[in-house]
Amino acid sequence: MPTRIQKQAQKESLLLNMGPSHPAMHGTIRVMVELDGERILNSELEVGYLHRGFEKICENRTYFNLLPYTDRLNYVSPLINNLGYVMTIEKMLGIEVPKRAQYIRVIMSELSRIADHLTCLAAMAMECGAFTVFLYKIKAREFIWDVIEETTGARMTTSYIRIGGVRADLHPDWTRSLQKAIVETRKVLKDVAGLLNKNKIFLNRTRDIAVMTPEEAISFGWTGPCLRSTGVYYDVRKAHPYLVYDQLDFEVPLGERGDNYDRYDVRMREMEQSLRIIEQCLEQMPKSKSPLVATGMEPSQAIKSSREKRVEERIKLSPNLEGSEKNIYKNILTKDKRYIIPPKENTYTSIEGIISHFKFFMKGHGIRPPKGEVYFSVEGGNGELGYYIVSDGTDKPYRLHLRGPCFHIVSAMEKLIQGRYVADVIPTFGSFNMIGGELDR
Amino acid sequence: MAMEEKKTLKVLKERFQDKIIETSAHFGDDTLLIEKDSFLEIMTFLKGKPWEYNMLLDLTCVDFLGQEPRFEMVYHLLSLPKNHRLRLKVRLSEKDPAIDSLTSMWENANWLEREAYDMFGIHFKGHPDLRRIFMYDGFEGHPLRKDYPLRKRQPRIPLSK
User: C-alpha distances in angstroms, B84 versus A247, A268, B57?
Assistant: First the structure.
């Protein structure tokens, strides 16, 4: 297909394709560069290789059904995507969420933010030749995903944060694994800082390369760590506080020059702050009043003994994720019964329960926000993650639009690499943290 | 805060009179519905001092099939110094879905407008390079329009050149 650059290119210059399948083009994106020797004269980005029609799908799903699709936007930090969507709906419905659920949400989104930054910097460092850093960071990320997996049951596609609260209470053993993740991440951050911060090879490829001025960054709609690396103070958590962020003490790290190194540095310092937030949440969080562990006979034991005689004891059998039994609902889900799934105990044992279950899932019923339109945003790994939803009063959104922070950041790429060398494309692109799912939607 | 937000809408309404068709603050989001003809004028005014809506947060479109005017362009602006968000809406008719481009004012309008063109077939007057962004060349129709079926299939494009 004839692209702009092919038409404009000078006769003697060389056109080089990077991607869409290229180890350094995370996900799929195509960069076409016009070269004079190694110098980039012009470039063109082609996106859309991962376009799955997210917005069109959402128009045809109910508000409850479309939650899993939001996992697949920024698949490194799915919990923040869940949160953004869910809080947009809650803003429309005017739902109050219990304090404990709010703290769980904050912990989960900060863990996701760390995972997001770790992934970004791991890939960036690896592409600059620092493979050790990559392994260290991926190791730390595994510890974080262990915490997430324990509670949500999945590493990446979690669908854990639900309208009205969260799906289940935290795993009984979560403080232990969280402490471990915090300790390990701190260690990795220290090691990585020691390996990279004054590393000549790394500095040569990042310092004063792809410099962004604050004015240009604002004009490109940059948000998140990339905007803050240019020295602009804007963080959705501070500017428009949501959940309990206004009660937590944390700083917003700023850069000075807006080059690749500052984008790396801001992310590194932001992870420190995220760890601080998590530690504060651990202290402040209201304790769960109900025991988290289900009691009774182990199912495997029950099967074994049933071969000899009929089992009379209570079997420890939960149809749900652990920690989502009826008595826990009040800690983690809103009181308003119209917007949450009734407990499975009720659905299976009482007529009222099964009716409210049907009312929730039946076509044309369920969650129906009032007519109108709403915009709400949270601070995602890459910046302001905003949802714009138009409701026509039915159980499906009339229009759902995602403001993906990546989209705005990547659109500045063409300008940033102009006049640089081919080798500069790689660290520049790495410092953006492009996530295909969020960019192409 | 809420008082201040109401004030923003009131002051703008007084300044532009009948160029602003409607103001609302549903769910706490300040919204202006403005005339298409004075779109650029209002945008330029909002970007400059004293309002300083210096960031184009988002740009999208909504298709109200069966209504006239059919399309509604939605712009979200953010003022970093004032820490305030504002939503602007412009209605476009089905026959002439065209509006002035914002590429001269904001850099990210380039890609955002290409997306709106790709998904809804809105034409942006003065856009330097208006072509599809997510869909491929040769794709027929605009997928986010309400009259585009969910499961519509497109013919295969032969690999050429």
Answer: 21, 29, 11
